[in-house]
Structure formats: C-alpha cells, structure tokens
Amino acid sequence: MVPSIESQIHQALVEKEELRCREIEENNLRQTGVHKRIKRRKITMPKVRLGECAICQEPDLLLMVSQYDYDLEDRGFQDYCIGRGVFHVTGSEGSKRREYMQNYDKPYSDFVNESLFWPDKPRAHSTIEVREYMDTQWKIICIGRGKLQDCWQLYRKAQSDKRP
User: Fold this and answer.
1) Residue 70 exposed, middle or buried by CB count within 10 Å (0-12, 13-18, 19+)
2) Is residue 123 classed as helix, strand or coil in its secondary structure?
3) With the C-alpha atoms ordered 137, 95, 84, 65, is the resulting torsion angle positive or negative?
4) How far apart are CA 80 and CA 106, in angstroms?
5) Per-residue model confidence (pLDDT) at position 163
6) Below-50 pLDDT ranges, the chain
7) What is the largest CA-CA distance in the chain?
8) Buried-state track 80-98, b at ≥16 Cβ within 10 A, e below 16
9) In this structure, are residues 160 and 153 in contact, taking their beta carbons and an 8 Å threshold?
10) Cβ count near 18 (within 10 Å)
C-alpha cells in the first residue's frame, strides 16, 4: 500500500524546501567562502481536499503524487470514478493514454518515444516546441494518475466504511 496523497504531497513539499535551502547555502558558500546553514521552514501537512470526501482539484499538488496502487481493472473502482467524474482522464479503452494510466510504472522516457503523443507535423515545430508540448502532455498524464490515486484512496475508504 502506498502512502496517502497527502503524505506524498507533504514529502514533496519538504524536499522542495530542503532543495531551496541547499541552493541558498551553496550560493552563500560560493560568494563568501563560509558555509552558513539556512533555517528550514516548517512544512505542515497540506490540506488537499475541500472536504473529507472531496477530490483534490489542484494540478500542482496532483503533480507531486508519484506513488500509485490504483487498479483500473476493478469494475467497482471504474464505476466509482465515473460517478465522481474522474474516469475520463484514463482515455478510451485500448488507447495509449489508457495504457499510461493503467501501467503507472511506465516512465517519461517511454512516453517521449510514443509518436502518437507527438504534435501534428513535428518537423514543422522547433525541437524546443516539441519538448514543451511533450512535457505538457506528460504533466497531463501525471495529473491524471494523481487524480486516479486520490479517487482510489477515497474509493477504498468508502469500501471500508461500508463494512461492519
């Protein structure tokens, strides 16, 4: 079982703060030759839902979710996602988008080699434009995965609440 999306987002925010402080410390060291430790901000557990059963709507937070255990083969979960208005992120059955949502271990390196995701007439675009386009498409995949993981956790909670 993977950590809750709240825990994953919290960990990502802690790591981001650590990186920010290290960059400042390294910059200070280069400029002054003296290592001075920067005080880290305390990162509290984020509130990712407006209500106990609400689905996270913040794309920036959903991008921080990186561990998944949802099961798109679970018919009950599919119905739950349809009812919550989330299932559309999976794409149509048999599509490459569905494949990337279902096989959440598939990395970005595989994704960029999928010509189906490339913009129309990629040669008409600069390399930078194609990379930006692909990065945006990958973010959409990651946000969808995060949304599905969030929905999975709510689904599992709803299932356990039904049990006596």
Assistant:
1) buried
2) helix
3) negative
4) 24
5) 61
6) none
7) 64
8) bbeebebbebbbeeeebbe
9) no
10) 12
Joined tokens for residue 22: 């290290």
Integer Cα distance of 164 and 162 in angstroms: 6
How far, in Å, are 9, 62, 63, 78, 159 from residue 48 at the CA level?
9, 9, 12, 22, 21
Structure confidence at residue 70 (pLDDT): 97
What token pair was written down for 2?
Answer: 């993977």
Give the model's pLDDT for residue 73.
95
Question: Which tokens in the block code for residue 105?
Answer: 């271990």
Looking at residue 117, its pLDDT comes to 66
**What whole-number distance in Å separates Cα of residue 98 and Cα of residue 89?**
8
Q: What is the pLDDT of residue 111?
A: 87
Q: What is the dihedral of CA 129, 133, 138, 143, to 10 degrees?
A: 130
Q: Which amino acid is at 106?
A: K
pLDDT at 40: 95
d(CA 158, CA 164): 12
**Sequence-separated (6 or more) residues with CB below 8 Å from residue 58:** 48
Q: Rounded to the nearest 5°, which phi and psi values hold at 117? A: -90, -10
Which has the closest alpha carbon to 73: 54, 96, 101? 101
